[in-house]
């Protein structure tokens, strides 16, 4: 009974992970507004209760991927301990360095270990075929809700069809949703803001693209078309580039096989038909939107006039300055902001309300984001921690590519999904500094599950 219940909670957690458009539960900290975390935490607690009765819990400690992960988690502690004198005296935004480390490390553990082990213990009891079809179906259902919301939001916000606003507002009755409209030309659908919605699309894109591989008929192209259209209207520059890159990976893989070449042509033809229909009804609006999206990708040209870009590049620059001063072991996990605030460049802070209102404001309790997981790791864990994390990236992508080349059908499909997902999520790390990215840890668990098909691979650890 417990196993069936936490299996359902696992699937609900995946379905609701992009739903963060509600007030939330403050006690959960960084996860307070993320509905998916509620189900995943509940599922993990049931797993712990089950292990108390069975005295066993599955841990993939033989996996090279898991070993690298554990080394990374340990180094985050070691680098902080080595910086103990400065960590103990750090203070900013009413928060001490030790407190900041505990909170940040706990958030890291929830995503990379607690949720990961929960994923693993569910996946190890599932056949690879079930993993492929069940997880994909859950993501498809969430995409359907996101598409309905996003379609209505686009018509109201982008095309100014105001009479549909009451229809859109009906989605307030859906669990964990509070309808919010953003600036013209941007949608966030089921998520609080466009950037997080883009992360959701990047996370599920590989799963939705895989319908082209496994299904028949014209409907197998619809999930891919939905991903591309939602990414376009989200207004996320990074999301637009990353999803396009993921789509190129898919095209590259498919084009190597003669049987799929016609599908590529059909997909492109379908996209052109939809685009043509949109151009007929509102061509000027579409052309203007495309021009704006292309212009928005010019980061260098927009640096001076775009506040968001100035903040992002300014934060990344400051993190690199911290790294230059502490290149080997960094300044300790979670400690970046205590040091980077002294390195904000004038070109980033000048005429930038974000620094005055949030980042440099001591009364604003929220810490300034680093906007880049890699520059954050360099600053906080030094070249050692950065190298360990890069090793995790290299190993996971390399194994995924090997699975595609040598595996059977289900494994190959999962390998393609993993390669597309890993590529997109790791690139997305260039614009986010959080480890609270569900897709990475889920994909790592699936990767280890595929490898566990080898004899004597799976091990169970006694919990006494």
From TrEMBL:
Q: Which Pfam families match?
A: Wzy_C
Its annotated compartments are: Membrane
Transmembrane parts of this sequence: 37-53, 65-85, 105-123, 196-213, 225-251, 263-281, 377-400, 412-429, 435-452
Q: Does the keyword Transmembrane helix apply?
A: yes
Q: Which UniProt keywords apply?
A: Membrane, Transmembrane, Transmembrane helix
GO CC terms of this entry: membrane
O-antigen ligase-related domain: residues covered: 225-390
Main localization of the protein described in the UniProt heading? membrane
Protein name per the record = O-antigen ligase-related domain-containing protein
The record lists the organism as Flavobacterium psychrotolerans
């Amino acid at each position: 009974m417990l196993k069936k219940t936490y299996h359902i909670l696992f699937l609900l957690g995946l379905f609701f992970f992009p739903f963060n458009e509600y007030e939330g539960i403050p006690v959960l900290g960084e996860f307070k507004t993320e509905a998916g975390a509620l189900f995943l935490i509940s599922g993990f607690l049931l797993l712990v209760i089950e292990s108390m009765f069975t005295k066993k819990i599955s841990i993939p400690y033989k996996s090279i991927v898991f070993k690298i992960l554990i080394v990374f988690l340990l180094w985050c502690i070691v680098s902080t301990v080595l910086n103990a004198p400065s960590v103990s005296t750090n203070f900013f935004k009413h928060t001490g360095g030790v407190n900041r480390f505990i909170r940040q490390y706990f958030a890291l553990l929830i995503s990379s270990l607690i949720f990961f082990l929960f994923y693993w213990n569910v996946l190890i009891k599932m056949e690879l075929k079930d993993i492929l079809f069940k997880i994909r179906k859950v993501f498809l259902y969430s995409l359907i809700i996101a598409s309905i919301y996003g379609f209505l939001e686009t018509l109201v916000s982008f095309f100014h069809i105001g009479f549909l606003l009451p229809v859109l507002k009906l989605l307030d009755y859906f669990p964990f949703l509070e309808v919010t409209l953003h600036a013209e030309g941007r949608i966030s659908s089921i998520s609080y803001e466009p950037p997080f919605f883009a992360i959701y699309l990047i996370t599920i894109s590989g799963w939705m693209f895989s319908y082209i591989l496994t299904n028949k008929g014209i409907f197998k192209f619809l999930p891919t078309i939905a991903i591309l259209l939602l990414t376009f209207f989200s207004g996320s520059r990074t999301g637009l580039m990353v999803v396009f890159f993921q789509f190129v990976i898919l095209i590259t893989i498919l084009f190597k096989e003669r049987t799929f070449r016609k599908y590529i042509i059909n997909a492109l033809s379908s996209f052109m038909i939809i685009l043509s229909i949109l151009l007929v009804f509102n061509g000027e609006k579409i052309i203007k939107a495309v021009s704006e999206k292309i212009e928005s990708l010019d980061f260098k040209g927009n640096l001076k006039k775009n506040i968001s870009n100035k903040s992002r590049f300014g934060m990344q620059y400051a993190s690199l300055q911290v790294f230059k001063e502490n290149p080997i072991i960094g300044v300790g996990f979670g400690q970046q902001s205590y040091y980077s605030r002294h390195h904000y460049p004038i070109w980033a802070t000048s005429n930038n309300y974000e620094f005055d209102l949030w980042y440099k404001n001591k009364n604003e309790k929220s810490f300034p984001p680093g906007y880049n997981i890699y520059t954050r790791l360099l600053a906080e864990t030094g070249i050692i921690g950065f190298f360990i994390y890069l090793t995790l990236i290299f190993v996971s992508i390399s194994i995924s590519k090997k699975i595609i080349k040598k595996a059977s059908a289900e494994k190959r499909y999962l390998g393609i999904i993993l390669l597309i997902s890993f590529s997109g999520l790791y690139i997305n790390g260039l614009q986010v500094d959080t480890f609270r990215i569900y897709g990475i840890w889920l994909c790592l668990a699936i990767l280890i599950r595929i490898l566990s098909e080898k004899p004597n691979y799976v091990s169970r650890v006694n919990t006494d």
